[in-house]
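Kindly inspect both lines:
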Amino acid sequence: MNRKHLTSLTNLQKTLLITLHGKALESEFKNSILNDHFAANVSERIEFDFSQFKLSRNAIVALAIRAKALDLWTEQFLTENAQANVVHVGCGLDSRHFRVKPGSGVSWWEVDYPEVIELRKKVYDEQSRCHLLGTDILESEWLSAIPPDVPTLIVAEGVLPYFAEESATRFLTDIVSHFTSGQLAFDAYNRWGVLWLNQLPVMRQTQEKLHWVVDDPAQLEVAIPGLRLKVENTDGLPEFTKRAGFWSRTAFRLSRGISPMRRMGQLLLFSFGSL
């Protein structure tokens, strides 16, 4: 097998390998949440020492739950909007397009840095109605390539927390300004969540940190006119959280009654325009 090298990726771009590795490992679990065998296949095609990422079972389960929740929101959106755009921002090497299997009326956009998109082209086969867009997503010019007048879902997994607050707000504002109507689905963390995650060994290995703090997602409605909070999920997917270890499940259960602890990790779904 001709394995691909990653010498062109920056430290920030290499953070995509953490989620790729986690999903590949989770696909091997009995009763896997994601069954993401695409991730396992892609991992084998990349020249990289994934063993340096010491991911615990709890971390692997958490990554899978986050991805599954975003998949379910994507599927729900496409059930309600057969003619639509899906803009997968910071797509990395994720296989959401293959897991969700969008219908013929959907234009899917995989958006990430040019170096990441070039690597993606090498490890995934070309798909009809799936467009690859290599760009810096903080430069709003890339939005002009995507039709604004159909319902649009923007999905960002493990992306926005790396932004500074000003950059995250500007990005969300640009999205709401460009598209006529749609939804935004992404993960966020309050200040305690950001502090905790930045102390994890796997994060220190990347030499990158999370920055964007969301203590109260309702505040984004004020900062970004037109944005409306639709769902704030701080519980993950209860049918799957039981797969974490005993102490992790116990701490999670106890944290439900303490707002700052409950919002350490959030999955947020916003709507704008007519949706």
